[in-house]
Putative polysaccharide export protein (Crocosphaera watsonii WH 8502), 286 residues
Amino acid sequence: MVSLLWCSPGRSQPSVLDPIPPLEPYPDLRNQGFELSTETEYTLGAGDVIRVTVLPVGDFSGEYQILVDGTLFVPLLGTFPVQGLTLTQLTEFLTQQYRQYVKRPSVTVGLVSPRPLKLAIAGEINNPGSYLLPIEGGQKFPTVTQLIQQAGGLTTVADLDNVTIKRQFQGETLTLTLNLWDLAKKGQLKQDVTLRDGDEIIIPTQEIIDIGETRLLSDANFGLSANQEINVAVVGEVYRPGSYRVIPESNTVSGSQGNIRRQPPRLTFAIQLYHFHKLRLQMFIL
């Protein structure tokens, strides 16, 4: 195999790499009549494994891992920072650098193995906190609803109209607002965005509870966790006021051969009225 190298006459090999070109600012499409996209290009970070292909000199090709300090080492060019760059930006940078050694180089950069995603979720979620989700074996990146499932599901007062994601993208903090009701009611998959490393998801609290929406949410695969007991306090004109633990109802679906489907806890009162007396009842979910 013959490697073709090209150098300018009288030009010595540079000892220092040219600086990485500045990042382009994230375009604000809202002022141009477009909706802000909820998807952003993948940015590189420590732990990513990439493959660099350089033609016509195959000796410069190979797979490389980004180091913990966000730098990358490739043959001939040495070590340089790539933290926060997109694959497109790194391709352009490597093409520019290899032009010093190869005539009309064709450089491609591909993601072989992405780093594990460290995500945070807070608010009206059963198990808030930080989650480390590995991406292995050609798996797709997790979505918002998959992280909600991983975190134990939503609470009964979750506001799905204003779910927010805070994302670091090319030195800026982007705030994405999602309406998961559009996913549950209308099937809009664009609301179920794929997550990126470092995303922070916040589920706010709704002020007015709609019982109909609560029942609908219990049927969604990312909604309420129907297998948990809840505490209910009953006070007022009742025989036995106090705190009660209510467990989910178990309904066997016909033809399911014993498979049990859980329903959210429901309290049914049978009230008899005597001589037009009215009973006053207040319920508070603890």
About this structure: Residues 230-285 form one domain. The longest strand covers residues 106-113.
